[in-house]
Amino acid sequence: MTIDVEVAREPSDEIVSAFRRLLPQLSRSAAALDRAAIERMLHHDANTVFIARVGGQIVGTLTLVMVPIPSGLRARIEDVVVDGAARGMGVGSALTAAAIDVARSANARTLDLTSRPERDSAGRLYERLGFRERDSRVYRLAGDE
């Protein structure tokens, strides 16, 4: 089985359909994305959106966000989702490796990500790829609070 990872550049029908199918597997509360929202996401200067294919079908996605700040270029992996039917096949690893390569090529000082504690397999994957858990607090102010 071959996993092909590429950067999504335009909001094709296929990509729009894939996000409609995959996003609910990542978050039950996230609103569905229409073509305009996907286009904004794909064309935003800070984002690199990767898609993974197996047998030509989109089975996963990852967004790499890179921003220059006073302390240097910082990179962050966001919204990694692999279709339930494709989990355990190396899709998450392939997506994350592609993001690592791009962040390193851009000379990002750090590459961060978060993962829910109950996602043990994701945590093991990230540790295998060289990520280490940080002693840090994450604070969030939601838009509706």
Describe the structure.
The chain is of the alpha+beta class and about 140 residues long. About 30% of the residues lie in helices and about 30% in strands. The longest helix has 15 residues, at about 90-105. The protein starts with a strand and ends in a 17-residue tail after the last helix. The model has no long low-confidence stretch (mean pLDDT about 95).
Secondary structure blueprint with pairings:
Layout lengths: L2 E5 L5 H14 L8 H9 L3 E8 L2 E13 L2 E11 L8 H15 L4 E3 L7 H9 L17
Parallel strand pairs: 4-5
Antiparallel strand pairs: 1-2, 2-3, 3-4
Note the main attributes of this structure.
145 residues; alpha+beta; Aminopeptidase; five-stranded mixed sheet; 4 helices; 28% strand; globular
> How many domains is the backbone divided into?
1
- The CATH topology, please? Aminopeptidase
CATH superfamily, by name, is: Gcn5-related N-acetyltransferase (GNAT)
Average pLDDT, all residues:
93
**Low-confidence region ranges:** none
The assigned CATH architecture is 3-Layer(aba) Sandwich
How many E strands? 5
Strand share of the residues? 25-35%
Shape: globular
How far is the first residue's CA from the last residue's CA?
45 Å
The largest beta-sheet arranges its strands as 1-2-3-4-5
- H/E element order: EHHEEEHEH
Helix content: 25-40%
**Helical run tally:** 4
Radius of gyration: 15 Å
Q: Describe the biggest sheet?
A: 5 strands, mixed
Structural class: alpha+beta
Q: Regarding quaternary structure, how should these chains be classified?
A: single chain
